[in-house]
Amino acid sequence: MPPLPGADLLLPSEPSQRAIARELYALAKDQPLISPHGHVDPAILAEDAPFPDPARLIIVPDHYLTRMLLSQGIPPAELGVPTVDGAPVETDGRTIWRRFAAHWHLYRGTPSRLWLEQTFRHVFGVTKPFGPANADEIYDEIAARLAEPAFRPRALFEKFNIETLATTESPLDDLGRHAKLAADGWGGPGGRVITTFRPDNVVDMEFDGWAENVERLGEVAGTDTGTYAGYLDALRSRRQAFIAAGATSSDHGHPTALTLRLSAAEAATLYDRGRAGTATPEDAEAFRAHMLVEFAAMSIEDGLVMQLHPGAVRNHNRWLYDRHGRDVGGDIPQATEYLHALTPLLDAYGNDPRLRVVVYTLDEYTFTRELAPLAGGYAALYLGAPWWFLDSPEVLRRFREAVTESAGFYNTAGFVDDTRAFCSIPVRHDVSRRIDAGFLARLVAEERLPLDEAAETIVDLAYHLPKRVFKIGERLL
Amino acid sequence: MPPLPGADLLLPSEPSQRAIARELYALAKDQPLISPHGHVDPAILAEDAPFPDPARLIIVPDHYLTRMLLSQGIPPAELGVPTVDGAPVETDGRTIWRRFAAHWHLYRGTPSRLWLEQTFRHVFGVTKPFGPANADEIYDEIAARLAEPAFRPRALFEKFNIETLATTESPLDDLGRHAKLAADGWGGPGGRVITTFRPDNVVDMEFDGWAENVERLGEVAGTDTGTYAGYLDALRSRRQAFIAAGATSSDHGHPTALTLRLSAAEAATLYDRGRAGTATPEDAEAFRAHMLVEFAAMSIEDGLVMQLHPGAVRNHNRWLYDRHGRDVGGDIPQATEYLHALTPLLDAYGNDPRLRVVVYTLDEYTFTRELAPLAGGYAALYLGAPWWFLDSPEVLRRFREAVTESAGFYNTAGFVDDTRAFCSIPVRHDVSRRIDAGFLARLVAEERLPLDEAAETIVDLAYHLPKRVFKIGERLL
Amino acid sequence: MPPLPGADLLLPSEPSQRAIARELYALAKDQPLISPHGHVDPAILAEDAPFPDPARLIIVPDHYLTRMLLSQGIPPAELGVPTVDGAPVETDGRTIWRRFAAHWHLYRGTPSRLWLEQTFRHVFGVTKPFGPANADEIYDEIAARLAEPAFRPRALFEKFNIETLATTESPLDDLGRHAKLAADGWGGPGGRVITTFRPDNVVDMEFDGWAENVERLGEVAGTDTGTYAGYLDALRSRRQAFIAAGATSSDHGHPTALTLRLSAAEAATLYDRGRAGTATPEDAEAFRAHMLVEFAAMSIEDGLVMQLHPGAVRNHNRWLYDRHGRDVGGDIPQATEYLHALTPLLDAYGNDPRLRVVVYTLDEYTFTRELAPLAGGYAALYLGAPWWFLDSPEVLRRFREAVTESAGFYNTAGFVDDTRAFCSIPVRHDVSRRIDAGFLARLVAEERLPLDEAAETIVDLAYHLPKRVFKIGERLL
Q1: Tag placement on chain C: N or C end, fewer CB within 10 Å?
Q2: Would you say residue B4 lies in a domain?
Q3: What subunits make at least 3 CB pairs under 8 angstroms with A?
Q4: Is A114 an 8 Å CB contact of chain B?
Q5: Nearest CB to C453: which of B8, B72, B108?
Q6: Do B76 and B328 touch, CB atoms closer than 8 A?
Q7: Which GO terms fall under biological process for this protein (chains A, B, C) (predicted)?
């Protein structure tokens, strides 16, 4: 029987590879989803309220979509993206939806298109092709679905077969939504929805409001952050609170991968300058770099897996930032050096099996030169999945083609969806599983790996490996 | 009926992809050629004289060919490349032709070979394989063709189905050849042969004779370039003259992509130093960088599309430069940074829909990290086709594989042949169309894009997109 | 008749490409092996003693294997890797073998796995799949083979169809083992086993013991290395001795590709500082860079082909270096710049056909930007095969896909196995031949190259080209 339409999505078209890929994909397809790194708002699952209208759910918050339209001259305000100064923006969901649909051809060949089409089909049961002609009809279909109880967040969570979903919170967060989830039997250590410790806004002195954030950190933690030692205590204390809320990892988004080992006195000097408002950009970079090594030391104590996300130049599009603020599509990657940057951290703890550092990149031109040799040579290092601009079929494939030969499969960390778009979680994992199936199928077709080992590998990549690397299901306390 | 030999050139060999690629290529194949960026001497079309002998037409001026022979120890003088000091070089066309043919194996797998073979076959009707054995016979066949009226430049232009061809001139050019073309009904705004404003020799203080060029610029423009303000006036005035001669774009070949926004006073200081002969290399770089932002401002006023060609280290082969001068194969690419370099220009005008900047690269290791995210995030930016060393089947394919996922198809600018070799224009466009057909066919075969959308896309890439991006056929005055 | 199992290893699976690839591979398969760059201990062939037990032969000295286990937390001491301080390590071959086999899944998709499997099968006749279940049995099979006379090094050398094998020696080596080989009819100019002049330990002031090495160099050469002039004389004299022992090339392993042309006086000053122990890291880098240009000048005189291996950061894994010393898997590549770095050398001798410089890289992100344009534009430059971390099926393929279009096939230098693992030599060459067959098959299938030319090319790449580029079989004296 021929497969259903769409069943071979992303699988190699060469028949011998496709046959093997189908077989491998079938093994991975229904594995529970492990999502150890994402940005879904925990309130969605804590409150389990119905989603808003289709445009507000799908278009307005998705900067992949709005930046593409900006690149063709359509300003974000016309798509409902809120302004910093409250200047009016389009508010009619259907108008936004139509405007978006009118430019659907811009997304040909992009992962955004793929994610949307698959979400429409598999989450909402829409079978008509999206585009200007069907936009209204599809809007209505989705709106109708969203009103049904089966499309509430928790129902979808179960339909999506998610085993564990990690959200990301600042140390300043009171973790109240996670407490609610735990009370409902959805959260806490080993639970279905867990948190991640993301301290950037209290580590990066160049972050707007860092000094105030550090003050608040002291209040939340019940320690005096007037000194560097108190600051470290506060961080340690918040990590414990996060672990109690289920966290198994921390996440660090830095402009570069620089690490640095300062004495406590040197670090305290930088800290004091930061609080006094006299820190230079170099001070800020040194402090961030030093704190990565501090966090590694804390990880060895408390067991949190470290995630390092370097390489994004934030708010590169100045006009966009001035009008619409952070995280609306104005960030751009920059060249990222890992080898020398990570040396201080690796010299200190690189071979310590108690430490686990998952390193991501936005710069694929480090795959074979730096990242794969590092991950294949240090016990503490794992390679994270291609991230953000690189979370796409072509790069997922190039990632395996590039890193496997030096790092193997088992120094990679498994797929992370890294998304705020809850409804897109299944398709993102599905894309990764399909690409891995295709890559492994080629190894089999070229007689480089027997089918039984490829079969074991695809299940490991889809399920066991991310679970193990990120300690999902483990209780750190 | 099976396709003719050669019909499947460059199409993927996997049967399902090949069948789709044939279908797509058939749609693109006969689209008129839009050549918005090239270096054909306009005198060729203005005078419409017969071409010289085959060696002088095809080998001597083609530095792709002569540099490959130099790399194997055959000096350019033996191939007839003129010397700076007038030292004698080989002058016999047939000897040059035979010498070249004797080393034909060196070109296996290169685009040069592909272009030549297709040119021999499709322009000159030569069906024998080129090589040492048939060299003489093929020389005679081509020489015979070149004597025929149907092989005069204008006749070939029509045979090639070129809709518009842009040449490149310095602001010092009197545009006389374009005036002749216009008088003959071949040129002028919206015409078949148009010019491009290429001001490098009056912008780059490190260019031989910059100060004299700036003097002459004043004379040609009828303004006093003794001051920076007069210099800007002269440039504005020449842009108007170029627009009147059909130009729709300017072209800027810089060693780096650096842009800089100086005050008029700062710029004037650099300008004066340049004229006084006291400018440092840093001054020259700052002035070039500043002028890019100035040209962007002028573009917003007068509508010329900006093209930025950074990354070539000119005259790297010192021995070659000393003996044979510029543009004979001695340039080599260097690593090119775009993100920080373009920031001043983008901060000023990056989201202004009146500006259009087409950025090229010789450094493919910026495709996914910088170029695609930039083009997919700024209204003013478009990605130019892979250029020079990168204008080749493998890189054209990698370009689509790399940039489409972040920038889509519609933030790219279409193919430009960038060539001085008039007879190679059709095959260069044909290669690009074949590679795009193959790339789109894979998307279709992997169920990522429906055939009807792929069909629309290939025609857009071949024809509509370059026409639109470069304003071909538009009248800016 | 269908091919034997494993016959299509690494060939493209698309049937039309596979058919062509089989045909091409059949032509290359049995060509004699030319191994112009490797690290086999010449004592192995000089003494022709039986090999040690399987673990000591195959696992303990192979840092590709031990680093992968370290990356998963298994320390090298558990695999028998000797310690610097003599601290005890595992010594039981069978225990090491079992420990390795227990982690066999880590090597899926790596060249190490491929090399081992093919070595087991084709050298030792083991047909069972390797892994924990069969580890003991395979250990016994191999141990039994190793005791047979047919598995002595010289017998294997002949079975492997090696025509010439180059080893690598320091100028301080007395070349005694090569003298023994010559006496046995196995060595000397034009012989089966030849040496390579590798002066890093007397050139690189940052090398442990450089000053003492320079002293010893004087003793070995019988010159006074107390002065820079005497040092150069000593090097010239040792090169003559190496040439007399069959060397046709020198090899230079530098952290960067930097070259520099100092005056004799400047160089002497650096040299004196080095001997006085007052040289800075910058002095050391300048001296290394200068010496590359000196060695190029010597090459023009004495005919040795220069090999430049830049880009490895040695001993990056500090913990590993402290416990186990050099060359045990702790080196990592770094970004490598070639264009500006090589300029002084190329300005001096880049177009001199008497010089031949083979340049390697660990940074594939220079292939199309710098390396291919350089090799395709300078008479003296050749591109070496992908090296070390890049000696793998995927990169060998990407190498051809990237460099051929600018450099062709004939500015590359042919495959070098670069290995200490004698038994892996045949499979390494075989992998390269298979990948080249697949690449050429695609060119044929896409109608870019006729089959007869592809057939000539594959034999050139496998045999004639490395022989010619490295002057194998030539007598330089």
Answers
A1: N
A2: no
A3: B, C
A4: yes
A5: B108
A6: yes
A7: D-galacturonate catabolic process; D-glucuronate catabolic process
Q: What is the pLDDT of residues A77-135, one digit of tens each?
A: 999 999 999 999 999 999 999 999 999 999 999 999 999 999 999 999 999 999 999 99
Non-local (6+) Cβ contacts of A140 within 8 A are none
**CB-based burial label for A452 (10 Å; 0-12, 13-18, 19+):** exposed
Segment C19-36, tens digit of pLDDT: 999 999 999 999 999 999
Average pLDDT for C449-468: 98
Query: A5 in a domain, yes or no?
Result: no
Hey, is the C-beta of A373 within 8 angstroms of any chain C C-beta? Answer: yes
Supply the mean pLDDT for chain A. 97
- Does A353 have pLDDT greater than 50? yes
Interface with chain B: mutation pick from C397, C403, C406, highest number of B CBs within 10 Å: C406
What number is the ipTM of this complex? 0.97
Residues of chain B above pLDDT 70, percent: 99
Question: Does residue A4 carry a pLDDT above 80?
Answer: no
CB pairs under 8 A between A and B: 125
Owner of token pair 């690839």? C21
List the 144-203 stretch of A: residues with Cβ below 8 A of B: none
Structural domain containing residue C108: 52-150
* Among candidate residues A119, A150, A181, the one where a domain is terminated: A150
- Give pLDDT tens digits for A17-63: 999 999 999 999 999 999 999 999 999 999 999 999 999 999 999 99
Long-range contacts of A88-95 (CB under 8 A, 24+ apart): A93/A52, A93/A53, A93/A54, A93/A55, A93/A56, A93/A139, A94/A55, A94/A136, A94/A139
CATH number where B67 lies: 1.10.2020.10
Å between B350 CA and nearest CA of chain A: 8
Nearest to B109 among C16, C447, C449 (CB): C449
Structural domain contains residue A3: no
The whole-model pTM stands at: 0.98
- Indicate the pLDDT class of residue B320, thresholds 50, 70 and 90: very high
* Residue with tokens 């190490």, as numbered in its chain: C112
Over range C411-433, report the average pLDDT.
97
Q: Chain B window 120-149: which residues touch C at a Cβ cutoff of 8 Å?
A: 129
pLDDT of C363-394, one tens digit each? 999 999 999 999 999 999 999 999 999 999 99
Phi, psi of B414 (to 5 degrees): 90, 165
- Among A54, A12, A118, residue whose Cα is nearest residue B443: A12
Listed in sequence order, the residues at least 6 apart from A68 whose beta carbon sits closer than 8 Å to its beta carbon are A103, A106, A107, A110, A112, B376, B408
* Interchain CB distance below 8 Å, A68 and B447: no
Judge if C287 and C376 occupy the same domain.
Answer: yes
- CB of C409 closer than 8 Å to CB of C439: no
Here the tokens at position B270 are 């650099």
Domain count, chain C: 2
Whether C405 and B313 lie within 8 Å, measured CB to CB: no
Helix (H) or strand (E) holding A162: strand A162-166
Domain shared by B145 and B184, yes or no: no
CATH number of the domain within which B278 lies:
3.20.20.140
Cβ–Cβ contact B76 with C under 8 A: no
Q: What are phi and psi of B8, to 5 degrees?
A: -100, 15
Give contacts of B372 with chain A, Cβ < 8 Å.
389
Cross-chain residue pair A445–C13, CB shorter than 8 Å: yes
Tell me how far apart the alpha carbons of residues B9 and C445 are, in angstroms, rounded to a whole number: 9
Between chains, do C339 and B313 touch, taking CB under 8 Å as contact?
A: yes
According to the model, what pLDDT value does residue C2 have? 44
Which residues of B, range 218-277, sit inside 8 Å of C by Cβ? Answer: none
Chain B residues whose CB is inside 8 A of the C402 CB are: 394
